[in-house]
Automatic annotation (TrEMBL):
<dbReference type="InterPro" id="IPR001789">
    <property type="entry name" value="Sig_transdc_resp-reg_receiver"/>
</dbReference>
<feature type="domain" description="HTH luxR-type">
    <location>
        <begin position="155"/>
        <end position="225"/>
    </location>
</feature>
<dbReference type="InterPro" id="IPR058245">
    <property type="entry name" value="NreC/VraR/RcsB-like_REC"/>
</dbReference>
<keyword id="KW-0597">Phosphoprotein</keyword>
<dbReference type="Pfam" id="PF00072">
    <property type="entry name" value="Response_reg"/>
</dbReference>
<dbReference type="InterPro" id="IPR039420">
    <property type="entry name" value="WalR-like"/>
</dbReference>
<dbReference type="GO" id="GO:0000160">
    <property type="term" value="P:phosphorelay signal transduction system"/>
</dbReference>
<feature type="modified residue" description="4-aspartylphosphate">
    <location>
        <position position="57"/>
    </location>
</feature>
<dbReference type="GO" id="GO:0003677">
    <property type="term" value="F:DNA binding"/>
</dbReference>
<protein>
    <submittedName>
        <fullName>DNA-binding response regulator</fullName>
    </submittedName>
</protein>
<keyword id="KW-0238">DNA-binding</keyword>
<keyword id="KW-0804">Transcription</keyword>
<dbReference type="InterPro" id="IPR000792">
    <property type="entry name" value="Tscrpt_reg_LuxR_C"/>
</dbReference>
<keyword id="KW-0805">Transcription regulation</keyword>
<dbReference type="InterPro" id="IPR016032">
    <property type="entry name" value="Sig_transdc_resp-reg_C-effctor"/>
</dbReference>
<dbReference type="GO" id="GO:0006355">
    <property type="term" value="P:regulation of DNA-templated transcription"/>
</dbReference>
<dbReference type="Pfam" id="PF00196">
    <property type="entry name" value="GerE"/>
</dbReference>
């Protein structure tokens, strides 16, 4: 069971999300329609450890632009250990890049907390959506497959050292799939999947001392898929 702070301005979708999450056994601690209210609730609930995950829309009042995303970034800055999932209506690469820390400088998955960037269409695939929330709560990163596909033009990076199979495995990791799910999808043994992921860590220079290497590898993957310029 997760305690969730929800922000979504469309009343019908907000009510639908509340109903879906509660049917799945989670508790929606509060559901608000604006980014301003999201930040106000976060200031009260997060220091009290009353929320396990924040789920928010990107485009919200009061500005009806990227207010929800900016609120999410503020929450991540003030409470880096809180898992965070952002919902978007469309594939908006710069929003995903901003959330994941891919726009300039080094990516910093603060506190090892999970992050998710999902399209709203994913909500209709209830099992996938709920699985994504669990992955993020566990400290993973989940990026919608359509967003990953939109970032598939790359410049030369450390990813060039990966084999085709290793890149395939890493892309599935970026979608939030577990080792067992990757094993089934690619018809590989679980041991082979573990070996490929270990090779990815080694080739990307990710040491165990750096924390959640799975998260860092996904971020490196997404940095490499970013369109130039």
């Amino acid at each position: 069971m997760m305690r969730i702070l929800l922000a979504e301005d469309a009343a019908l979708l907000r009510d639908g999300l509340v109903a879906l999450l509660e049917r799945a056994g989670h508790e929606v601690v509060t559901a608000v329609p604006t980014a301003t209210e999201l930040l106000a609730e976060a200031r009260t609930l997060l220091p009290a450890d009353a929320v396990d995950l924040v789920l928010t829309d990107v485009r919200m009042p009061p500005g009806n632009a990227d207010d929800g995303l900016r609120a999410a970034l503020r929450i991540r800055q003030d409470h880096p250990s809180v898992p965070l999932v952002v919902l978007s209506q469309y594939v908006e690469q710069r929003y995903a890049s901003t959330l994941l820390g891919l726009t300039g400088g080094e990516a910093r998955p603060a506190g090892g907390a999970g992050l998710g960037y999902l399209l709203k269409d994913r909500v209709s695939r209830v099992h996938d959506f709920l699985d994504a929330l669990e992955v993020v709560r566990g400290g993973g990163i989940v990026v919608d497959p359509q967003v990953v596909s939109a970032l598939m033009r790359q410049e030369s990076t450390a990813l060039d050292r990966l084999s085709g199979r290793e890149r395939e495995v890493l892309e599935l990791v970026s979608r939030g799939e577990t080792n067992d799910q990757i094993s089934a999808r690619l018809h590989l043994s679980r041991g082979a999947v573990v070996k490929h992921i270990s090779a990815v860590f080694d080739k990307l220079g990710l040491m165990e001392s750096e924390g959640n290497r799975r998260v860092l590898a996904v971020i490196e993957f997404l940095r490499g898929q970013r369109p130039p310029g």
